[in-house]
Amino acid sequence: MTHYDTQYYPYPSRRTAVYAKRGMVATSQHLAAQAGLEMLKQGGNAVDAAIATAACLTVVEPSSNGIGGDAFALVWMKDRLHGLNSSGPAPQGLSLEALREQGLTEMPMYGWTPVTVPGAPAAWAELARRFARLPLTTLLAPAIAYAEEGYAVSPTTSRSWQTAFAEYRAAVQGEQYQSWFETFAPQGRAPAPGEWWRSPGHAATLRSIAETGGESFYRGELAGRIDAYSRQYGGYLRAEDLAAYTPEWVDPVSGSYRGYDVWELPPNGQGIVTLMALNILQQREDGGGNSGLEDELVDARTHRELEAIKLAFEDGLWSITDPRHMDEARVAELLSAAYASRQAARIGDQALLPHTGKPPGGGTVYLATADGEGNMVSYIQSNYMEFGSGLVVPGTGIGLHNRGHTFSLDPNHPNALAPGKRTYHTIIPGFLSRGGRAIGPFGVMGAFMQPQGHLQVLRQMLDYGLNPQAALDAPRWKWEQGRKVLIEPSFPEQLAQALRDRGHELEVAHNSGLFGRGQIIWRDEDSGVLCAGTDPRCDGVAASW
After folding, report:
1. Choosing a second label site near 357 at 20 to 30 A (CA), which of 193, 198, 318, 492?
2. Pairing of strands 81-86, 248-250
3. What is the pLDDT of residue 2?
4. Phi, psi of 16 (to 5 degrees)
């Protein structure tokens, strides 16, 4: 790897990387990570650990995900990478015409209109069916116990919960939202750090999903309750939409960078934005006549990273949608060397003004798992925008997501709303391999921060030679819109000023949640030893064995 000896690198790491060999689970909440590790110790594999961790996260970090959200996974199993898209489509009764009749010109953020079919329970069931060793009742047992008996809320979760409560109290009113407040703010407020919280309805729902292999959620008693709730308040989601849903196994897409293969899921996810940006950087730096990266100050490299991500989003935000509604050749075109070369030629010494608006925020959880046999999982799930739609199916703990908010109501936009269509999706798991051998899973959660986070941690590791923990510890930037860029308080001031001199409009943001929260597990190709990092911006750990 390239070594940089500049005034800005390496960034000081706040924690040391974790090493082990028999298994690892890295995620943003310690109880969930321990639940996954427990499955490995019971004889389960990396997929068993991922399912248990994911289900547990819906209980112990409900401000970022839930049973009523979507999920995606990259699974390295038996020397092959598998992709699972478990994002749900718009209900059949939801259309542009229906919303025009209501006088809407853009998708609402809350309520029933942005609710699409949830895919997370189907992801757990499908992963278990294909790859797991342990029964779903065993895998969901820790989550059920925490929901039924309670747990002490962790600090970062409490903080995001309190922020979300203030937003929901101001934004959602009416009888249909009452169940959300009864479930997540039973004392009229969000729980404080260390406060005991439980959700019996959540436990009953998880038990039903476990005992029926997910059938109750899509074709049984839970589906009926979701349908009745939707009909009661004029929603569009129906039991028929739930019954028709199945996750989809897809072929991951990849790009070559610095001798590694970087893997993402294809659209409707935004993972190709990361690959596009990496391609642009590689073209600009390797084919642009640079005298050598090691001779440059880091401001030139950071400037190019910002320009590359803006250019990638410029086309990604316009092109990405349900692949059934995309030109079949579009993904290949966006990932082509010719496209990267054209975009790289647009990068100069000053900040560009891209033709994109401001992407909204979101709420997501990510996890990475590995076992001692070489299997690994990169998994992500989300309710979008903290708790999602503000709707909770009464008595169930099912907080319904608002993923449909990313649909466009412009009929000429590729991501225009249509019945049964999946929208542009922000949550993206990543995976790294080299020479056909797994290196490991990585991910950075946080809506449209995710491709930016993927880009930055990959550059930290593959270009600057940092280990997973040091890469996650490094201060981040976040492109917001136009030339506006948010930076963390720890961002080097000298670097910030150099970027301002290049035309970037930098603003220090003290909310660490804006910059994503990542997890990484790497496997040493020779020894098989695992190395993990977990983001200091969350309450996570890398539980190891």
Report:
1. 492
2. antiparallel
3. 34
4. -90, 150
Domain boundaries, the chain: 31-248+371-406, 253-361+427-544
User: What are the beta bridge partners of residue 393?
Assistant: 398
Amino acid in position 379: Y
- Between CA 458 and CA 99, with CA 120 as vertex, the angle to 5 degrees is 100
Question: Beta 505-508 vs 484-487: how paired, if at all?
Answer: parallel
Is residue 109 a contact partner of residue 171, using CB atoms and an 8 Å limit? yes
The phi and psi torsions of 366 (rounded to 5 degrees) equal: -130, 150
3-class SS of residue 10: coil
Summarize pLDDT for 53-66 with one digit per residue, the tens: 999 999 999 999 99
pLDDT digits (tens, 9 = 90+) for 141-164: 999 999 999 999 999 999 999 999
| Integer Cα distance of 55 and 144 in angstroms | 9
What are the angstrom distances between the C-alpha of 502 and each of 212, 300, 349?
Answer: 58, 9, 6
Whole-angstrom Cα Rg for the chain: 22
Average pLDDT over residues 254-275: 96
**pLDDT tens digits, residue range 307-326?**
999 999 999 999 999 999 99
CATH superfamily label, 253-361+427-544: Gamma-glutamyltranspeptidase, small (S) subunit (3.60.20.40)
Q: Which of 121, 196, 145, 156 has its CA nearest to residue 38?
A: 145
Q: State residue 288's pLDDT score.
A: 47
Q: What percent of the chain has pLDDT over 90?
A: 88
Q: What is the mean pLDDT of residues 119-146?
A: 98
Is 364 among the catalytic positions?
Answer: yes
DSSP 269: B
Which of 113, 364, 369, 423 is an active site residue? 364
- Hey, what are 258's tokens? 């610095």
Provide the mean pLDDT of the chain.
93
Average pLDDT over residues 437-462: 95
Cis omega (within 30 of 0) for bond into 10: yes
Model-level pTM?
0.94
∠ Cα 455 461 465 (to 5°)? 145
Q: Cβ neighbours of residue 60 under 8 Å, at least 6 residues apart?
A: 29, 31, 32, 146, 151, 154, 157
- Give the contacts of 37 (CB within 8 A, at least 6 positions apart): 23, 24, 25, 49, 543, 544, 545
The mean pLDDT value for 509-527 works out to 93
Residue 119 and residue 86: Cα distance in Å, rounded?
A: 5
Cα–Cα nearest to 86, from 51, 136, 43, 138: 51
CA 258 to mean position of chain CA atoms: 24
Q: Give dist(CA 74, CA 271) in Å, integer.
A: 12
